[in-house]
Amino acid sequence: MNYCSHCGAPVALQVPSGDDRPRHVCESCGMIHYRNPIIVVGCIPQWEQRILLCRRNIEPQRGLWTLPAGYLETGETTMEGAARETHEETGACVTDLSAYLHFDIVHIHQIYMMFRARLSRPEWNPTEESSEVVLIDESRIPWNDIAFPVIKETLKFFFDDRRKGSFPFRLRRIHRRMNPAE
Amino acid sequence: MNYCSHCGAPVALQVPSGDDRPRHVCESCGMIHYRNPIIVVGCIPQWEQRILLCRRNIEPQRGLWTLPAGYLETGETTMEGAARETHEETGACVTDLSAYLHFDIVHIHQIYMMFRARLSRPEWNPTEESSEVVLIDESRIPWNDIAFPVIKETLKFFFDDRRKGSFPFRLRRIHRRMNPAE
User: Fold this and answer.
1) CATH no. for residue B6?
2) Which of residues 74-133 of B touch A (CB under 8 A)?
3) Residue A39 near residue B39 (C-beta atoms within 8 A)
4) ipTM
C-alpha cells in the first residue's frame, strides 16, 4: 500500500494514537488503513466413498492437486462461498455442508475454512481453474503432489476421522514450512 | 474506495475479464482491489459460574453491554486474537480457549468467531474501551441492554448449552434486524 484509497495522497507507516502497532496512515486525510487476514473457504466433496480432487490449471502450484477452495466474497455466507467455489472449480453442486476444519495460516495472513459436503449428483467437469477433476478413492490420493500443506492436512484429518467414524470440528495452525521440499 | 492504493490513480467499478462481479479496478495500473469479509474474534470469559461483561465506552452502542471482541490482526492466530482483545477490553487474562460459535453477518461483511475461555485469575478492570467490566451471573444479564444481536445470540447459546452440559461448535448467520427495536 502506497496511496490512500480514500483521497489518493501518499500513506506512511506509523503507530496511530492509542494503537500499539504501525498502520498505513494517510498523510493528507488521516485515514488509517488496516490490514486484515483473508478467508479462504472450500469443500471436501464426497460421493459414496470417494472425494473430488482438482488438478490446478492456474498458478501457484499449477499441475498439482487440491480440494476446491477460494476467497470468500462479501455478500455471501461462509457456507455459500464454499459451495460457490466448489462449483466454480469442479462444475459440481454440493449439499449438506458441515463446518469441519479451521486453519490459521498466520504467515500468509489467511484463514482456511473447510467444509465436508456431499455431491448432489455425480456430475463434475474440468473448468478454467482445474485441468482435471476426478472422483478418487483414499488409496489413490497423490500425497506427493498435493498443492498446499493446508490441503494435505485437510485430507489427512478427513480420512483419519472417517476411520474413527466421527468428524469433530477442529481449529489448527499451519506453520511455515522450514524445508520447502516437505 | 476512490483511488488505487498501489499507484494512486482513480479506480472504477468494473467486472474484470473472467470474473462475474464488479470490482474496484485501477484505471492506470490495472490492479484489481478485492473487498473481503473481516473477522472479529472474542471470548466468553468464565470464572466459576459467572462471565465477564463489558460496558462499551466507545461508539457504536456506547453505554451498552458486550462481550470482549474485536478485529483479528494479521500476525496472530484466531485464538491469540480473541485472548488479546479480551485483555485489551477487560484487563483479564484468559486460558483454555475453545472454538464455540461462528457467525456470518453478511450485511456488514463481518464474521464473528467466539471462544469459550476461563479467566486465569479473578482480575479485571475498566479499560479505555470499557467503562465497566463486571463478573455477572446468568440471572443478572441485562438482556435489554446488549450492544449487538451477535452478542445476544452468543449469550443465549452459551447459557442454553450450559444447561444441557455440552457446547457443540456452531455455524450460524445473523440477519439484518427488520425492527431496530428488536
Assistant:
1) 2.20.70.10
2) 74-79, 99, 102, 104, 106, 109, 111, 128
3) yes
4) 0.92
Strand order in the sheet with A32-33: A11-14, A23-26, A32-33
For residue A90, give the C-alpha cell: 469442479
B70 and B4 housed in the same domain: no
Give the number of beta-carbon pairs within 8 Å between A and B.
103
Task: Please state the separation of Cα B1 from the chain's center in Å.
Answer: 24
From chain B, the residues in CB contact with A104 under 8 A are: 77-79
Residue A179 lies in a domain: no
Where residue A182 falls among pLDDT bands split at 50, 70, 90? very low
Residue of A nearest to B99 (CA): A171
CB atoms within 10 A of CB A47: 17
B79-102 confidence digits (pLDDT tens): 999 999 999 999 999 999 999 999
Q: Which of B87, B89, B82, B90 is nearest to B154 (CA)?
A: B82
Structural Rg of chain A based on CA atoms: 19
Cβ of B73 within 8 Å of Cβ of A111? The answer is no
pTM for the predicted model, two decimal places: 0.93
For residue B133, give the nearest of B168, B101, B90 by alpha carbon.
Answer: B90
Residue A8 structural domain: 1-35
